[in-house]
Structure formats: structure tokens, C-alpha cells
Amino acid sequence: MEAALWYVLTGTRGGSNRVRLLRALDDRPRNANQLAEDLDLDYKTVRHHLDVLMDNDVVQRSGDEYGAVYLPTPRARQHWDTIETIIDQTDAD
């Protein structure tokens, strides 16, 4: 999981937006529209990054697809120290 987190959050284009999404979801679960508004990102961009995070078991969806709320997975919570290390590193850049 740690290698996947480093890859998804720092090793690919868009990693910084995925870090921003995780920070927001750590604060409170939100749907894609709320994330787009709160982070001033395009809705389709948010959906793309959420799909990448879901494909890598970092976030999960709760509820129906339209209006579904996203939150970190239990597996991501187990590795939250790694996520915080990655966030700290991206803040330093």
C-alpha cells in the first residue's frame, strides 16, 4: 500500500490534486460537486482523481453514484502516517 500511495500521490501527473482531495476528505466526507467547489477544480477533474484514488483503494464511495459521498478507506486510514509524510513533503516543495 505504501508504494501505491507514493506512486499515486507523487509519481504521477495530478498527484498534487489527489493530495488536496485527500486533505479535504480527511476533514469531512464530501461528494464530487462539493469537492470541486471547495477546491476550485473542474468537476470532471475531481471525478477523474476520485476514480484513480478508488482504483488504488485510497478512497471509497458511500451511496448512489450521483451525489455519492467519498471518504478514505479503512486501508488508507491504516497507512495515514505515510499519507501525512507525503502531504508534508509536497508542502515543502
UniProtKB/TrEMBL annotation:
<dbReference type="InterPro" id="IPR001845">
    <property type="entry name" value="HTH_ArsR_DNA-bd_dom"/>
</dbReference>
<dbReference type="InterPro" id="IPR036390">
    <property type="entry name" value="WH_DNA-bd_sf"/>
</dbReference>
<protein>
    <submittedName>
        <fullName>ArsR family transcriptional regulator</fullName>
    </submittedName>
</protein>
<dbReference type="InterPro" id="IPR036388">
    <property type="entry name" value="WH-like_DNA-bd_sf"/>
</dbReference>
<feature type="domain" description="HTH arsR-type">
    <location>
        <begin position="16"/>
        <end position="60"/>
    </location>
</feature>
<dbReference type="InterPro" id="IPR011991">
    <property type="entry name" value="ArsR-like_HTH"/>
</dbReference>
<dbReference type="GO" id="GO:0003700">
    <property type="term" value="F:DNA-binding transcription factor activity"/>
</dbReference>
<dbReference type="Pfam" id="PF01022">
    <property type="entry name" value="HTH_5"/>
</dbReference>
